[in-house]
Protein backbone atom coordinates (compact mmCIF):
# COMPACT_ATOMS: atom_id res chain seq x y z
CA UNK A 1 0.00 0.00 0.00
CA UNK A 2 1.08 3.50 -0.53
CA UNK A 3 -0.33 6.90 0.24
CA UNK A 4 0.65 10.55 0.17
CA UNK A 5 -0.84 13.32 2.30
CA UNK A 6 -3.38 15.50 0.54
CA UNK A 7 -3.99 19.05 1.67
CA UNK A 8 -6.51 21.27 -0.04
CA UNK A 9 -9.34 23.66 0.60
CA UNK A 10 -11.64 20.68 1.01
CA UNK A 11 -10.15 20.27 4.47
CA UNK A 12 -7.39 18.41 6.27
CA UNK A 13 -6.74 15.06 4.72
CA UNK A 14 -7.50 12.21 7.12
CA UNK A 15 -5.19 9.76 5.42
CA UNK A 16 -2.10 8.47 7.19
CA UNK A 17 0.76 6.17 6.19
CA UNK A 18 -0.01 2.48 5.81
CA UNK A 19 2.21 -0.43 6.81
CA UNK A 20 3.53 -2.73 4.11
CA UNK A 21 2.86 -6.39 4.75
CA UNK A 22 2.92 -9.22 2.21
CA UNK A 23 2.99 -8.09 -1.43
CA UNK A 24 -0.44 -8.10 -3.02
CA UNK A 25 -2.32 -7.94 0.27
CA UNK A 26 -4.30 -5.06 1.73
CA UNK A 27 -4.02 -5.52 5.48
CA UNK A 28 -6.63 -4.48 7.98
CA UNK A 29 -4.07 -3.74 10.68
CA UNK A 30 -6.22 -5.51 13.24
CA UNK A 31 -4.56 -8.87 13.56
CA UNK A 32 -4.88 -11.88 11.27
CA UNK A 33 -7.86 -14.08 10.82
CA UNK A 34 -10.50 -11.85 12.39
CA UNK A 35 -13.35 -10.02 10.77
CA UNK A 36 -13.06 -6.28 11.58
CA UNK A 37 -16.66 -5.83 12.63
CA UNK A 38 -17.59 -9.23 13.97
CA UNK A 39 -15.86 -11.77 16.16
CA UNK A 40 -16.24 -14.55 13.61
CA UNK A 41 -13.20 -16.01 11.91
CA UNK A 42 -12.40 -14.14 8.74
CA UNK A 43 -9.70 -15.52 6.48
CA UNK A 44 -9.81 -12.99 3.65
CA UNK A 45 -6.54 -10.98 3.77
CA UNK A 46 -7.98 -8.46 1.32
CA UNK A 47 -10.15 -6.76 3.91
CA UNK A 48 -9.26 -3.32 5.17
CA UNK A 49 -11.19 -1.19 7.62
CA UNK A 50 -10.14 2.17 8.95
CA UNK A 51 -11.13 5.15 10.96
CA UNK A 52 -10.71 8.90 11.06
CA UNK A 53 -9.99 11.30 13.85
CA UNK A 54 -7.06 10.88 16.23
CA UNK A 55 -5.40 7.55 15.67
CA UNK A 56 -6.33 7.52 11.98
CA UNK A 57 -5.38 4.52 10.00
CA UNK A 58 -4.68 4.57 6.34
CA UNK A 59 -7.65 4.39 4.02
CA UNK A 60 -5.51 4.52 0.94
CA UNK A 61 -3.99 1.34 -0.42
CA UNK A 62 -3.24 -0.59 -3.55
CA UNK A 63 -4.69 -3.95 -4.48
CA UNK A 64 -2.40 -6.07 -6.63
CA UNK A 65 -4.39 -8.19 -9.07
CA UNK A 66 -2.75 -11.18 -10.66
CA UNK A 67 -3.68 -11.50 -14.33
CA UNK A 68 -4.69 -14.77 -15.89
CA UNK A 69 -2.83 -16.63 -18.61
CA UNK A 70 -1.18 -14.27 -21.07
CA UNK A 71 -1.62 -15.12 -24.73
CA UNK A 72 -0.01 -13.50 -27.73
CA UNK A 73 -3.06 -12.75 -29.86
CA UNK A 74 -1.00 -11.32 -32.72
CA UNK A 75 0.68 -14.58 -33.65
CA UNK A 76 4.11 -12.96 -33.92
CA UNK A 77 7.05 -15.34 -34.10
CA UNK A 78 9.48 -12.64 -33.06
CA UNK A 79 10.72 -13.88 -29.69
CA UNK A 80 11.84 -10.54 -28.22
CA UNK A 81 8.50 -8.90 -29.09
CA UNK A 82 6.59 -11.73 -27.44
CA UNK A 83 8.72 -11.50 -24.31
CA UNK A 84 8.15 -7.76 -24.07
CA UNK A 85 4.41 -8.24 -24.51
CA UNK A 86 4.21 -10.99 -21.87
CA UNK A 87 6.23 -8.96 -19.39
CA UNK A 88 3.99 -5.96 -19.90
CA UNK A 89 0.76 -7.91 -19.42
CA UNK A 90 2.11 -9.87 -16.46
CA UNK A 91 2.66 -6.77 -14.35
CA UNK A 92 0.18 -6.55 -11.44
CA UNK A 93 -2.63 -4.02 -11.74
CA UNK A 94 -2.53 -1.47 -8.94
CA UNK A 95 -5.82 -0.11 -7.64
CA UNK A 96 -5.45 2.86 -5.33
CA UNK A 97 -8.25 3.43 -2.81
CA UNK A 98 -8.74 6.33 -0.43
CA UNK A 99 -11.20 8.01 1.90
CA UNK A 100 -11.87 11.65 2.74
CA UNK A 101 -14.31 13.48 4.99
CA UNK A 102 -14.89 16.50 2.74
CA UNK A 103 -17.17 18.46 5.09
CA UNK A 104 -19.36 19.36 2.12
CA UNK A 105 -19.18 18.46 -1.55
CA UNK A 106 -21.30 21.35 -2.77
CA UNK A 107 -19.37 23.17 -5.48
CA UNK A 108 -16.28 21.04 -4.87
CA UNK A 109 -16.84 17.90 -6.92
CA UNK A 110 -14.56 18.91 -9.76
CA UNK A 111 -11.87 19.90 -7.27
CA UNK A 112 -12.16 16.48 -5.65
CA UNK A 113 -11.78 14.78 -9.03
CA UNK A 114 -8.67 16.84 -9.81
CA UNK A 115 -7.11 15.73 -6.52
CA UNK A 116 -7.97 12.08 -7.22
CA UNK A 117 -6.32 12.37 -10.62
CA UNK A 118 -3.25 14.08 -9.20
CA UNK A 119 -2.85 11.41 -6.51
CA UNK A 120 -3.68 8.53 -8.87
CA UNK A 121 -6.62 7.39 -6.73
CA UNK A 122 -8.99 5.06 -8.60
CA UNK A 123 -11.67 4.73 -5.92
CA UNK A 124 -12.35 7.42 -3.34
CA UNK A 125 -14.82 7.11 -0.46
CA UNK A 126 -16.20 10.47 0.69
CA UNK A 127 -18.20 11.43 3.78
CA UNK A 128 -20.34 14.42 4.74
CA UNK A 129 -21.25 15.20 1.15
CA UNK A 130 -24.49 16.89 2.29
CA UNK A 131 -26.08 16.20 -1.09
CA UNK A 132 -29.72 15.32 -1.61
CA UNK A 133 -31.03 12.11 -3.07
CA UNK A 134 -29.71 8.65 -3.86
CA UNK A 135 -28.19 8.83 -7.28
CA UNK A 136 -25.21 8.28 -9.55
CA UNK A 137 -23.65 11.30 -11.22
CA UNK A 138 -21.12 11.56 -14.02
CA UNK A 139 -18.65 14.32 -13.26
CA UNK A 140 -18.82 16.84 -16.07
CA UNK A 141 -15.59 17.26 -17.98
CA UNK A 142 -14.05 14.11 -16.54
CA UNK A 143 -14.29 10.33 -16.77
CA UNK A 144 -15.22 9.87 -13.10
CA UNK A 145 -18.59 8.84 -11.71
CA UNK A 146 -19.96 9.38 -8.19
CA UNK A 147 -22.47 7.14 -6.44
CA UNK A 148 -23.93 8.84 -3.38
CA UNK A 149 -26.73 8.87 -0.81
CA UNK A 150 -28.18 11.22 1.78
CA UNK A 151 -31.51 12.21 3.30
CA UNK A 152 -33.30 15.54 3.14
CA UNK A 153 -31.92 16.74 6.48
CA UNK A 154 -28.99 18.62 4.95
CA UNK A 155 -26.55 16.57 7.01
CA UNK A 156 -24.32 13.56 6.65
CA UNK A 157 -24.20 11.90 3.24
CA UNK A 158 -21.64 9.49 1.82
CA UNK A 159 -20.43 8.61 -1.64
CA UNK A 160 -17.94 6.62 -3.69
CA UNK A 161 -16.08 8.22 -6.60
CA UNK A 162 -14.73 5.83 -9.26
CA UNK A 163 -12.53 6.55 -12.26
CA UNK A 164 -12.99 5.53 -15.89
CA UNK A 165 -10.88 2.39 -15.65
CA UNK A 166 -13.24 0.80 -13.11
CA UNK A 167 -16.64 2.50 -13.24
CA UNK A 168 -18.02 0.20 -15.94
CA UNK A 169 -17.34 -2.75 -13.65
CA UNK A 170 -19.94 -1.65 -11.09
CA UNK A 171 -22.60 -4.36 -10.83
CA UNK A 172 -24.42 -3.46 -7.61
CA UNK A 173 -25.02 -0.46 -5.34
CA UNK A 174 -26.60 -0.68 -1.88
CA UNK A 175 -27.47 2.18 0.43
CA UNK A 176 -28.34 2.26 4.12
CA UNK A 177 -29.78 5.60 5.17
CA UNK A 178 -27.49 8.61 4.79
CA UNK A 179 -24.40 7.10 6.44
CA UNK A 180 -23.55 3.91 4.54
CA UNK A 181 -23.17 3.03 0.87
CA UNK A 182 -21.68 -0.06 -0.79
CA UNK A 183 -20.52 -0.38 -4.39
CA UNK A 184 -19.69 -3.81 -5.80
CA UNK A 185 -17.29 -4.06 -8.73
CA UNK A 186 -16.06 -6.88 -10.92
CA UNK A 187 -12.42 -6.39 -11.89
CA UNK A 188 -11.20 -9.29 -13.97
CA UNK A 189 -11.45 -12.38 -11.77
CA UNK A 190 -11.76 -10.24 -8.62
CA UNK A 191 -14.97 -9.02 -6.98
CA UNK A 192 -14.35 -5.94 -4.85
CA UNK A 193 -16.86 -4.46 -2.39
CA UNK A 194 -16.22 -0.86 -1.35
CA UNK A 195 -18.10 0.70 1.57
CA UNK A 196 -18.10 4.39 2.49
CA UNK A 197 -19.39 5.01 6.02
CA UNK A 198 -19.83 7.98 8.34
CA UNK A 199 -20.35 7.24 12.04
CA UNK A 200 -22.41 9.52 14.31
CA UNK A 201 -20.19 12.10 15.95
CA UNK A 202 -19.76 12.88 19.64
CA UNK A 203 -22.88 14.42 21.12
CA UNK A 204 -25.43 12.34 19.25
CA UNK A 205 -27.56 9.79 21.06
CA UNK A 206 -26.23 6.38 22.01
CA UNK A 207 -29.13 4.79 20.17
CA UNK A 208 -28.12 6.45 16.90
CA UNK A 209 -24.53 5.27 17.36
CA UNK A 210 -25.60 1.71 18.12
CA UNK A 211 -27.91 1.72 15.11
CA UNK A 212 -25.06 2.81 12.84
CA UNK A 213 -22.81 -0.05 13.95
CA UNK A 214 -25.63 -2.53 13.56
CA UNK A 215 -26.33 -1.23 10.06
CA UNK A 216 -22.66 -1.39 9.09
CA UNK A 217 -22.31 -4.90 10.49
CA UNK A 218 -25.41 -5.94 8.57
CA UNK A 219 -24.01 -4.48 5.35
CA UNK A 220 -20.64 -6.20 5.83
CA UNK A 221 -22.34 -9.52 6.53
CA UNK A 222 -23.81 -9.48 3.00
CA UNK A 223 -20.32 -9.65 1.46
CA UNK A 224 -19.32 -13.24 0.64
CA UNK A 225 -16.13 -14.46 2.29
CA UNK A 226 -14.67 -15.12 -1.18
CA UNK A 227 -14.89 -11.44 -2.19
CA UNK A 228 -12.63 -8.54 -1.26
CA UNK A 229 -13.82 -5.79 1.08
CA UNK A 230 -12.58 -2.23 1.62
CA UNK A 231 -14.21 0.10 4.16
CA UNK A 232 -13.32 3.78 4.06
CA UNK A 233 -14.98 6.08 6.53
CA UNK A 234 -15.08 8.71 9.18
CA UNK A 235 -15.74 6.40 12.10
CA UNK A 236 -15.32 9.05 14.82
CA UNK A 237 -13.43 6.94 17.31
CA UNK A 238 -9.93 6.58 18.73
CA UNK A 239 -8.82 2.97 19.20
CA UNK A 240 -5.66 4.00 21.05
CA UNK A 241 -2.10 2.72 20.99
CA UNK A 242 -2.58 -0.35 23.18
CA UNK A 243 -4.58 -3.41 22.19
CA UNK A 244 -5.02 -4.96 25.64
CA UNK A 245 -8.33 -6.78 25.68
CA UNK A 246 -8.72 -6.39 21.90
CA UNK A 247 -5.76 -8.44 20.69
CA UNK A 248 -7.81 -10.39 18.17
CA UNK A 249 -9.05 -7.29 16.33
CA UNK A 250 -6.53 -4.54 17.17
CA UNK A 251 -3.19 -4.77 15.40
CA UNK A 252 -1.45 -2.41 17.82
CA UNK A 253 -0.85 0.30 15.22
CA UNK A 254 -2.96 3.09 16.70
CA UNK A 255 -1.82 5.91 18.96
CA UNK A 256 -3.18 8.02 21.77
CA UNK A 257 -5.91 6.85 24.12
CA UNK A 258 -9.03 4.87 23.35
CA UNK A 259 -12.31 6.72 23.75
CA UNK A 260 -15.91 5.52 23.80
CA UNK A 261 -16.20 5.79 20.03
CA UNK A 262 -13.11 3.65 19.66
CA UNK A 263 -14.48 1.09 22.08
CA UNK A 264 -17.69 0.79 20.07
CA UNK A 265 -15.65 0.50 16.90
UniProtKB/TrEMBL annotation:
Region listing for Disordered, in residue ranges: 1-44
Q: Which domain of life is it from?
A: Eukaryota
GO MF annotations, alphabetized: catalytic activity
Pfam families under this entry? Exo_endo_phos
Endonuclease/exonuclease/phosphatase domain mapped to chain residues: 98-237
Q: What is this protein called?
A: Endonuclease/exonuclease/phosphatase domain-containing protein
Q: Provide the species name.
A: Panicum hallii var. hallii
Amino acid sequence: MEMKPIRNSLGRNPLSDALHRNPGVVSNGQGPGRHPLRGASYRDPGTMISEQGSGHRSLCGALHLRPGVVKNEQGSSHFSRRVRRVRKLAEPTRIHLGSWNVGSLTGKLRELVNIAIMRHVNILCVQETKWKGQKAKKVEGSSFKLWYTRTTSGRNGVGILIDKSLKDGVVDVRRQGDRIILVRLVIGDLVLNVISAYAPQVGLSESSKSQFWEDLDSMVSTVPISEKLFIGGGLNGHVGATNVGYERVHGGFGYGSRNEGGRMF
